[in-house]
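Q&A log
Question type: sequence-to-structure
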Amino acid sequence: MDPNHTGPEEYGHGGDAPRQRPPRESLTSDFGQHAPVPARTVQLVSGDFLLTVNPVDGSEIEPCPPAERPARPGRLTEPERAEVERAAAPPVPPGPAQPSLPLLARQDEREALVRLLARGRSVRLVGPGGSGRTRLLDVVAEDCADLAPDGVVRLNGHRRSADDLLHDLFHAVFDAPLNRPDRDELLESVREIGAVVVLDDLEFGGAALDELLDATPECAFLFSATPDVADPSADSGVEDVELPGLDRAAGLDLLGHAVGRTLTDEEATWAGDLWFESEGLPLRFVQAGALLRQRDRLRAGTSAVDEFGVFEDVRPDEAPYDPADGDEVPLPSLGEAAAPAPLLASRLSASARATLRFAVALGGEVPHQAHLPALVGDTHADAALGELVSCGLVSPVGARYRLAAGVPAQLEAAGYTDDADTRIREAAQHYAWWTGHPSVTPERVCAESDAILAALTALSPLAADEPGTAVQFARTAAPAFAAGLHWSAWERALRAGAEAARIAGDVGEQAYFHHELGIHALCAGQLDRARAELEASIGLRGALSDKRGTVAGRRALALVADRSGVPLSIAPTAAEEVPEAHVEESASPPRGVPMAFPDLQPPADTGLVVSRAVTAATVPQQTKDGVGGGVKGLAKRNLVAAGAGALLVAVLGTVVTLGATSGNDPASPSENVGVNPSASQGLDDGSLDADPAAGNEGDTGKATSRPSDPGPDGTPGTADDPTPTATGSDEPSDDETRTEEPDEPTKTPSKTPSGPSKSPKPPTEPDPEPSEPEEPTDEPSTSESATETEGPTTQPGEPSTSVTASDTASSAPVETSTTATQSTDQASPDDTETMI
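Response status: OK
Response body:
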């Protein structure tokens, strides 16, 4: 037998599946360990990205492979469109069917709306809450069913932005499951839609409304809005149609249809006062009809029970009673009729009143009828929705119900918010369990999004007491919104969860929510916000050593960098520390600055770079003009050094120029300067190593003799020795034309074969008491003498205090100066003039 295939199941084997161990007792066979509930992981396409919604570790995003790219979406068929419209309609309340009230005194507005839509014009129906706008839109939608190629599309704008409505319109016409197109693809698709779009409860105007209209040029819109909504712009081309209240006759007629019988004279008078107070709003007459029906039931009293039984449904019009029987109930007062919600609620069942308390705690959002049994704790609590609809306390909003206009304020005044915190916690716990259950589809969660978000938002201030509930609620609701393509609700859930995690101090949950917010921003094209959220998530997960989450965050951050074109290395991440500031400057050249105006930045081929840390104390403060001293201070030092070098070059150039332009008089002392430096004393015999000077014009050709007089100090070769005189000539010798500092050691002469020889200078003994050396400076002194051609500057017998140019400058400028002088000595006067 093959060990990999154990045989068919008829032999007691389950194929490749392992055989389950039999229970020890037959009574415990149904209590075995169950497999863990799998996480709801959904993979969808968002623009150019492939998004995997993972509620456990966080969503993962990557570029969509070509094989995973969806085809161009096609339009929905007629049955599919009917199914979409049925899902968008509010659910039918359980219980007996409610009578349909006629549309009274609205014929003119109805014809005007249809006429404008038939011309392709967009129109806005403006009326206060409770004026019957939704009822009129239903009738007009039926009249315009055949006007456009794509028919009529019903949308709801309650808490929806222009971008949300464009995506809702796209999915109402095209078949694109698990596909959320990017902005360009979305606009390209909705431009092809030609439909009459009936949009109820519009909440924006101005530029946002212009954006919606410009994106759908082939659609005619019928908006419904309250007077407090912003007006459309003047260039939008949207016309407004006012919806006034009913007149007195229409109001009394509507009240009669709501009661289901003819009104008495007393009731008609009471209804007239109500019409004046309510300004003819139809909602007030619907609620007044509910008050009269409750009054009729109260008038029936116990006699109706004795006659028809407990379970008999008694109609007020079929069982009239005589007020003389003692069961007379007065009509509600005008104040109770103007604010009838508390009085109507007091006469409803306990389940209906509990539902109203949940609705008030959730900001007016009525939970779906399927959730009422679990929330209220009554198996028949779903019937409470029918009671609330028949009383006019709730009104349909898209695929759900909300408290009618003015009802939340009336119930709050009646004390229905006393236990709001308890109701919020109960609703949050229930929705946290329901949204995370694997049997609940994302579409069902998105249909209940307003109630879920209301519970999550109301729970955030209470998260300090029970932070775990709020975090767990957001963790289960947010992935469902993402998978259902309701991304505005996804973002709101993530932000509420991030706040709850911050209050709870849970770093891991904060990292999760920041990561999801970064993924949401990346899909929405908000790259800067995506970078900030992802960097925050990576920093938090790095602190927790969450390698898998860090890798997912860095992958998403790489996509952000690729989309934005900004490399990740330019900006440090949130988890990185800013390194210590360093200032790098090139080392100073050994012979000074060779350029007059050097570059501020070090050259690319600089071999030596000096790097030193700059502390807070050494950072240059801001100057008086508001400019920092970092680069400016460095430039200032370079300019000072460059200026000193430029001055030295200028002085040397002046020396060369003076030597070249001086006269050719043979008796001029400047023409008798030798090219060789001072001679030095030999090391062995004490003689001078300089060659005898060669003859020239003005030279005697004889060497000077040593001084016989040692001077006052008795030491020959010192500064007080008498100056030796030349023999055989009255012209000053070369020794008189060269001055030298006594403390400066002599240099070894360089022999030039082509220069004329000069008489050797007497040897100079070093000072027995050396002077203190001067402190070297980087800047050359400008007060030093740089000339050798200006003749003797001291009188005979006085020590020289000048410094030659050869001691302060580099050897190259000195050699140039000497060469120029030598060439001048050998040149003829004509040549000199030619050079000039």
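Response note: The chain has a mean pLDDT of 74.
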